[in-house]
Amino acid sequence: MRKPISLLAACGIAALGLAATPAHAADPSFTLAGPAEIGLRPHPGQSGAPQKTSVGFELVNDTASAFERESTFTIDLSGLKGIADVALAKQQGSDCTLTEAAVTCKRPALWKGRTGVVGLDLTAARGSKAGATADLTVTGKAEGAAFRAATTKVRIGGPDLVLERAALKEEQKPGDRQNLSIVFANEGTESVKGVVLEMRTTHGIDLLEQYDNCSYSEDTGPGQPLNTAWSTVQCLLEGEYEPGSVYGVDGSLTLKAAPHAFADTLTYAVYADGHQPKAAKTSRKPTGGKKLAVRERAPKAASAQSVDLDPWNNLQEFDFRTRNSADLVAWPVALAGGVGDTVAADFGFRNNGPAWVAELRSGENVARTDIVVPAGTKVTKVPAGCQGVNADGTAREQTLGAPRYFCSTGHVVGEREKFSYPFELKIEQVVANAAGSVSVGRGTPEGTKGQPWDPNHANDKTPVVISAKGGATPTATATTSPSPTATATASATATATSGATANGGLAATGSPAGALALGGAVLVAAGGGLVLAFRRKAGTHA
Fold it and tell me: Taking the complete model, does pTM exceed 0.90, yes or no?
């Protein structure tokens, strides 16, 4: 039985048209894009009414700037006569018109990146024959620009792989195992020669078995830490899969929650061989002698290979929630220098684990670092990812010289990962007892608030201490690192004491300085003055 599903990632692959319109050397060139092929269920469809298939065309502007002239896009519909009926997709807007002969759309400007051109709903025409094909080609025209056209082949009939949703438990604890049952059917009009089963898991879910007819790879895209990557498995299931038949994978596929599991996702899909997403270059194949097999579960009903009639029901996804916790710890910072000096400051925090945390659905930042700058100093260099705000946390235009900064992590914080934000501050005047702070937690309008999955909020905040040359030398003292223990309520309990206190800030000679926790900057005496020494931390984010 089919059920509507939400998708973590689109399962269609856009293809670019190759036909090019000659252009003047100085004219920008833009690319139109759409799917290579779509299939339409033969009229009148399974329910007795024509079943629509949607197709969208986009424009890709990968030039250095926007193109601020009107462009016109046209799709010739004459080839679809007697094969498919066309309608504009809902919420298309008033910039597209549809006639029996063509679709015409206008755009006042073409912004950088991808811009939607038109969305169409297609149904098989009454009297159309299975196997009939026609081309949909979108072209563009504008003064001072050239466009590469895109063509989508429309075909009546084809295979339709439908994947059954497995019965998996959402709530789990680290170390739990459960079997992934794969059952799929071909509900189309044509057979499929070879099926590729793809399974993708986030960092906290492991697939235990290894099969020789499967390839295994890690997604290590730019800017994504290795320990938070997706793992992808693609298995080629050879054979012919005929319309009306149901098939089941005959072999164990065991999912295990890792020690760092927290909020994780599994996606699994079946594709006709050749239509699966491209595997990573670093994929590997085991040679253990085991192959993942398939067995038929129902007698055959009713063969050129074609595109899947409904690719959206090829894929299922599942979200897991693991009873675990992650302890975010801000590290203290101590600085020294004379009036007029510019000093480097390494603000940040670390995740003591045991869990990784990722906002996979929303893409929101996992945490915010709130930095309050000590009085008497002015920020002269700000790292990427940090925004200057007013003292009360409200927005301001000037980034440099702000009294406070909000720095964001992005949507992933790995277990045992460190986030470092290197600033530079100029000491402008001596202010007695001047001290700032570093806090980490969930972003709020006021600053930060402890995350509900963080078991120890005592170490969320730590001081920033600055001492003037000739002042007392702060003494570093170690803090107790908390050791979270997972409980059955998706949180953990832990105790820790913070030895970091601010006893003096940018103070005059002879004033006491605050105690420092290990892991921050350390001041050492040298030749009667103060030398600033920073600990280097491996695996940090700038």
Answer: no
